[in-house]
Amino acid sequence: MAGLGASELLIILTVVLLLFGSAKLPQLARSLGKSARILRTETQALHDDEPVDRPSAPPARPLRGAALPTEHDDVRQAR
């Protein structure tokens, strides 16, 4: 993403001012601040809920097409 210069920021602020009006801008900024604060606290809570000692590798899963044991395998092993 390209950096925004002073002229681009001025154009964006002018468009926002025209769209929302000067009376709505403080309410808009306040609601954006509240949303950012809620998002930050929720992501922090998710990080706090993670278990401390995680396994180093995921549990092994059977391979596709691998033969699963059947009841006949038990009979063959008993002989």
TrEMBL record:
Answer yes or no on keyword Protein transport: yes
Membrane topology field: Single-pass membrane protein
Q: Where in the cell is it found?
A: Cell membrane
The highest taxon in the source lineage is: Bacteria
Q: Which Pfam families match?
A: TatA_B_E
Q: Which family does it belong to?
A: Belongs to the TatA/E family.
What this chain does, per the entry, is described as: Part of the twin-arginine translocation (Tat) system that transports large folded proteins containing a characteristic twin-arginine motif in their signal peptide across membranes. TatA could form the protein-conducting channel of the Tat system.
Q: Can you name this protein?
A: Sec-independent protein translocase protein TatA
